[in-house]
Structure formats: structure tokens, C-alpha cells
Amino acid sequence: MSAFIGIIGFLAFLIGIIMLLINLFRKKSKKKSLILIVAGFILFVVGVSIPSNNQNKEAKDNTSTSVSSSSSSSSKKEASTPKPSKSKAPKVLTSQEKAVDGLTGNSLAQTRSAISYLYSGHMSKQELYDQLTSEYGSKMTADEANGAINRIDPLVNWNNLAVLSAKGYRESGNLTGQELLDQLTSEYGSKFPQDQAQYGVAHIDDNIKSTDIWK
Predict the structure, then answer these.
(1) Which long-range contacts (CB under 8 A, 24 or more apart) does 66-71 make?
(2) How many C-beta atoms lie closer than 10 Å to residue 209's C-beta?
(3) pLDDT in tens, 56-80
(4) Whole-number Å distance between alpha carbons of 79 and 209
């Protein structure tokens, strides 16, 4: 279509030139010939400017090919890029949770019983053993009591338990100094080793709470 318009415009332009020459020779009006020249020139320019159907088709084909190649490349890139794993960070266990981690049945119950006595009585290791095996306590066998204590022993802060026990004696019996130290180490008292009892007396005014019995 664009070629046809261009040809018509070119022919009109030539005819206009010829008519202009004839009118010049005959000395007639040149208006019609000039209009024809201008119109022919415009048609010729328009015909040349409009792209042909083949050019449009080629441009569309090239665009489609480019989009298809881009999509294919993007798909391959997405397929080849490994997705980050959504693995959860391992849970950090507290010392108390570590003490019972993986335990079941009697072992779990015995260990929980030992922990309960530490919270309620702020006991030394020896006093805890006596309570676990006592007929007035948990009535465990020696092996059961030792097993429960051994599971919590590395995780317990026995010094802080001595501090809490010392605080209790001072509040309930107004004990201080050597009398308090004797009560902490006595076989009729808390049965703490000498070094732990001394720590308890020396740090009695520290801000130690029941939650601080764990390392």
C-alpha cells in the first residue's frame, strides 16, 4: 500500500512539472500545476515514510523472538538458581532444660524431683541426697538418687545455693557470722562443704535469686 501511494505521488509530481512547463510556455495560469506538484510530492513522501507490511511483520517477529528468548533465559536462570533453605536455628536450651533433655520414665521423674528440692529448700548436694533417699522424702535407692544428682551436678551453681541458704537462716533465725557458717556446714543443718559455706556467708548480701541456681 505504501509503495502504491509513493508511485501515485511520484507520477502526480512529474505530471505537475510537465503541466507547469506547458503553462509557462503558453503563458497560462500555473496554479493547478503547482497544486499538483505539491500534492504529488506530499503523496510521494507519505508513501516512502509508511513502512511496508513485510517490514512490520519482520519487526513483530523480531520482537516476539526477543521476548521469547528473554523469557526462556529468565526461566533457565530461575531454574538454575538454588533457593535458600529455610532451616530453623537450633533451640538453645537452658541449664535446667539440659538437665532433663532426652530423659524419660523414672529417670525424668527422679531428676525433676531433685530439681524441685533445690528450688524449694536451697539444699547442698549432700542434703539433697539425704532428702531423695529418706523415707520421709522421695524414698529413692542410692543409685537412683546418685543418678539424679549426677545429671544436674555439672549444671548447678552450688555456691549460689549456699548464698540462698544463708539468706534463709539469717531471715528465719537471725544467724550471722560463725554461727551462720556452722549451720551451713552442720550435719544437722545444710551440710555444705566448707568452701561453699564460706562463699554463702561472704556473699549473703549479693542479689542472688532462685533462678540463679543454674550455671
Answers:
(1) none
(2) 9
(3) 555 555 555 554 555 555 555 555 6
(4) 56
Residue 156's DSSP bridge partners are 214
What is the reported pLDDT for 96?
94
The amino acid at 96? Q
Eight-state DSSP code of residue 211: G
Q: What residue type is assigned to position 173 of the chain?
A: G
214 SS3 class: strand
Residue 53 near residue 3 (C-beta atoms within 8 A) = no
Question: How many angstroms separate the CA atoms of 99 and 139, rounded?
Answer: 21
Q: Where are the alpha helices (DSSP H) in the chain?
A: 2-26, 31-49, 53-80, 95-100, 105-121, 125-133, 142-152, 158-173, 177-185, 194-202
Could you tell me the mean pLDDT of each successive run of 10 residues in the chain, 215 residues long? 66 70 68 67 67 55 55 55 67 92 96 96 97 96 97 97 97 95 96 98 96 95
Domain residue spans in the chain? 1-51, 95-213
Amino acid at 78: E
Instruction: Tell which phi-psi region holds residue 54, choosing left (phi > 0), alpha (psi between -120 and 50) or beta.
Output: alpha
| Rounded distance between C-alpha atoms, residue 157 and residue 138, angstroms | 23
Give, as one character, the DSSP assignment of residue 81. Answer: S
Residues ≥6 apart with Cβ < 8 Å to 170: 176, 180, 204
Q: CA–CA separation, 162 vs 167, rounded Å?
A: 9
What's the confidence (pLDDT) of residue 149?
A: 98
